[in-house]
Amino acid sequence: MEYVEARRAAIEDRIAETVGAVEPAELGEELEHVVLAGGKRVRPTLTVLVCEAAGGDVWETPAASTARQQVALSEDGEDALDFAVGVELVHNASLVVDDIIDQSEVRRGTPSAWAEFDYGPAIVASNGLLGEAFALFSREPRAMECVTDALVDLGEGEAIELVDRPETEAEYMELARRKTGALFRAAAELGAVAADADGRTVETLGEYAERVGVAFQIRDDVLDATADSEALGKPAGIDEEMDRPSIVRVTDQSPEELNDLAVAESDRALEALDSLNLPEGEARDYLEYLAEFVVSRER
C-alpha cells in the first residue's frame, strides 16, 4: 500500500534523525545499532494512521511527490511523528531487555545489543532509548500518561513471565495484554491524542489496538510452534527452546482453535473501531486491514 509506505518512510527518516542527534556519539551509535537494524514499524505506523483516522491534519502530498517527500503541515503532524518515533524507541528498549533475559545473540539478523556491546552498555542503551522517547512525549501530559501506563503494564508483564508464569488461558491472555497489547494501545492512544480527539475516542481506539496486539501475540505463538523457520523468516520453536510461556503451551487447544481465539480478539477490535463512526478513508481502511492481517499472516 503506497499510502502506508509513505508514512513508514517519513517515520523511518524521523527515527534516523532522532537517534542520529544523540550525544555522546558512542551512545548514539549504540542506539542506531538497535533501532536502525530494521523492524516492521507496526506501532509507529499505527500512531500516525490513527491520528489521520481520528481527524488529525497531518500530511500534504503534492501530486508528483514520492514517499519521502511527504510534508508535515501542522502541529498534529509533528506531534504524530514525534509520538510515533517515541513509541518505537520504547518498543526497542524493551527488546534490548528481552534479549538479555533470553540470552538471545541475534535480533533482526544482526547482533543483539548485549552481544555487540556487552551487558552494561546494552542496559545503558535501553535507558537511553527510554530517555529519548520521553523527551518526545514530555510536552503533552496526555501522551505522558498513555506511555507511563503502558510501561507499568510492560514491566508487570515481564515480571509475570519470569516469576509467576501463566498456567491457564485466562492468565496467559492477561500476560499478552500487558506484554504486547499495552504498547499497541499506547501507540493508538498517542495518535488520537495528536489529533486532539476527545476522551472516548482516545479510549476506544486504545481498546481497538490492545485487542489487535493480543491477537498478534496469539498468532505469533501459533506460528512459532507450527511454522518452519524458512517460511517464518526467523528461527521457529523458540518458545519451547527457551521454556517461554505461550498460548500453545498453557492450553490443550489445537492451532486451529487458537487461531479462532485470535480471530475473536480481532473481531472485537473491529467492533470497537466501528463504534466510533470514523470518516471513511485510507487511514481507517488500514486500521481495518491491520486487525485482519495480524490473524492471517504467515510470518
TrEMBL record:
Entry's Gene Ontology molecular function annotations: metal ion binding; transferase activity
Enzyme Commission number(s): 2.5.1.-
Cofactor(s), by name: Mg(2+)
UniProt KW Transferase keyword: yes
Keywords: Magnesium, Metal-binding, Transferase
Any coiled-coil regions, as ranges: none
InterPro entries: Isoprenoid_synthase_dom_sf (IPR008949), Polyprenyl_synt (IPR000092), Polyprenyl_synt_CS (IPR033749)
Pfam family, one: polyprenyl_synt
Domain of life: Archaea
Family according to the record: Belongs to the FPP/GGPP synthase family.
Designated name of the protein: Polyprenyl synthetase family protein
